[in-house]
Amino acid sequence: MIPVWPWVAFLNNPVRFWIYYGFVIGGFVFALITLITQLIKPAPYGRFGNNDNNPNNWGPVIPQRLGHTISDALPCVVEFLLVYFLYGRNQYHYTNLVFMILWQLHYIHRGLIHPWIMRYSSKTTPLGDPRFIIGILLFIIGFIINRYADLKLRNLRRENQGYVIPSGGLFNYISCPNYFGEMIEWMGWAVGTFSLGGLAWFCFCCATFIPRARHNHRWYKERFADYPSQRKALIPFIY
Ligand SMILES: NC(=O)c1ccc[n+]([C@@H]2O[C@H](COP(=O)([O-])OP(=O)(O)OC[C@H]3O[C@@H](n4cnc5c(N)ncnc54)[C@H](OP(=O)(O)O)[C@@H]3O)[C@@H](O)[C@H]2O)c1
C-alpha cells in the first residue's frame, strides 16, 4: 500500500475531509481542555463524585454503571464503528481491520463489561449540566455546517465566475446552509451559556439570517427557472 500521510487525507472530498479533520481538531482541543480542567478538579466519579466529603456539587446524578457505559461505549464503540465504516479510508485493509479490532476489544470491555462487574463504593455518578453538553454539541455541529457551506460556495467560483445553483449536503434542502449552520452555532452558545446576552446575540443573528435567506431564496427562484422547487430557504423542510 502506498503510504498516505494524514495531513493530506480526503483533499478531494469535503465531507470526509471535515469529518476527519473535525474529529482530529476536536480531539486535540478536547485533550487540552481535559488536561487543564482535570488538573484543576479531578473527574467527578468515585471518591471525587458528589458525596459528603466533596464540597463540589457536580449536578444531577445517574447510576454509575450507566454513566461509564454512556461515556465509554457510546463514543468508542458505536460512534467509532459508524465513522470507521461510513467515512473511513481502506476500511477493509487488514492493517486497519487489525487496529480497529484491537480498539474494539479494549472499548467493548471498558464500556460494556467493566462498568457492570466492578464493585463501586458509590451507586451514582454526576451527569453534569446538560445545557453545557447540548450547547457545545450544537455549536460544533453548526460550525461544521457553516464551514462546509461557505467552502462549497467558495469552490463554486473556481469553475464559474457567475452564480450557479449550489448542490450537495444541506444545499439539497435549503438555499442558505451557511446561515443555518451559524444560527445553530449561536443557539448552542445561548443554551451553553444560558445567558440573556447569549439569547440576545442569537436573536440578532436570526434577525440577519431570516430576511437575508428569504431574499436569497427568492432571488434563486427568479434567477434559475430550474431551481429545485422542494428546496426551502433556511430551515430544512420548514422554512
Ligand atoms: N453573525 C452574523 O450576523 C452574520 C451576518 C452575515 C453573514 N455572516 C456569516 O458570514 C458568512 C458569509 O455570509 P454572506 O452573507 O457573505 O454569504 P453569501 O451571500 O452566501 O456569499 C458568500 C460567498 O459565496 C458566493 N456565492 C453565494 N452564492 C453563490 C452562488 N449561487 N454561486 C456562486 N457563488 C455564490 C458569494 O459571491 P458574491 O459576493 O459575488 O455574491 C460570496 O463570495 C456566512 O458564514 C454567514 O453565516 C454572519
UniProtKB/TrEMBL annotation:
The keyword GTP-binding does not apply. Keywords: Membrane, Transmembrane, Transmembrane helix. GO terms for cellular component: membrane. Coiled coil: none annotated. The chain crosses the membrane at residues 18-40, 66-87, 94-112, 132-149, 161-180, 186-210. PROSITE patterns: S5A_REDUCTASE. GO terms for biological process: lipid metabolic process. Its main location: membrane. InterPro entries: 3-oxo-5_a-steroid_4-DH_C, SRD5A/TECR. Gene3D superfamilies: 1.20.120.1630. One of its GO terms (molecular function) is oxidoreductase activity, acting on the CH-CH group of donors. Residues 105-239 form the 3-oxo-5-alpha-steroid 4-dehydrogenase C-terminal domain. It is found in: Membrane. It is a multi-pass membrane protein. Pfam families: Steroid_dh. The keyword Manganese does not apply. Belongs to the steroid 5-alpha reductase family. This is 3-oxo-5-alpha-steroid 4-dehydrogenase C-terminal domain-containing protein. It comes from Trichoplax adhaerens.
